[in-house]
Hints:
Order of helices and strands: EEEEEEEEHHEHHHHHHHHH
CATH topology of the largest domain: Jelly Rolls
CATH architecture of the largest domain: Sandwich
Radius of gyration: 24 Å
Distance between the termini: 52 Å
Low-confidence stretches: none
Structural class: alpha+beta
Amino acid sequence: MMQHLDRTSLGTPSRQRDVGGIRVSTTAYAGSSALPVHEHGYAYLCLVAAGGYRQSCPGREDECSRGLLLVHPQGHRHADRFYPQGARSLDVFLPPALLESQGVRRLMSDYRQLRLPGAEILRARIERELAATDDASGLALQAAVLELTAQAVRIDDDTARPVWLPRVLERLHDAPEATPSLGELATLAGVHPAHLARAFKRCYGVSVGEYQRKLRIELACRALRDPSRSITEIAAEAGFCDQSHFARVFNKFTGQTPSAYRRTLQIPSQ
């Protein structure tokens, strides 16, 4: 069963501190241990501080070694199996105001892995200030975390597509007539349904449902070339509940009725 987490971890937290709305913590994981499939209620950054692990997401597995920064959007589903030497992670939860800034919002919109220049230096700074108790440690910790975040925003490719997007597209293109729910597609992608909906529209400018309807109309257009097939039959095969609904959607996308479209192909209407 999938576990749902907020700002907590399934490992053993060793240090944690809140400063300026930012929460920073380090967590140790025992060697050869494993975490079941889970998701977090908040988007967060995870810097592998020591050791490493294999992370499994739907359709892929990644080796997460020391120095790798993982960007986990809200609701990203994954499971972890730690190396024999175990691992330690440095987890950063950013405040809502920062998450709403353009660059950070883009960075946190999709799961990705980044190798930052100077990541080891920043990791050492953050852990040092996390353990410090002097009056300046809070400011220094906040500054180091913001520098880490800024580097991640800069190195991130603004045109990058979500790593899970090909799986969703393949599902939609393989069976345009099918009616998978947003939840089913999100399970396939390994992300939260709301995240899938937002990221999909950001990439394609239309909702998942609108994209699927477009695929159905393309399927129908190809079928209309066959004069032996009736429009009613084509409508049903393309996944429309009735011919009237099919005609309305077809007209929306093509500006013609199915019969008129068929006439432009010089094929007798059925």
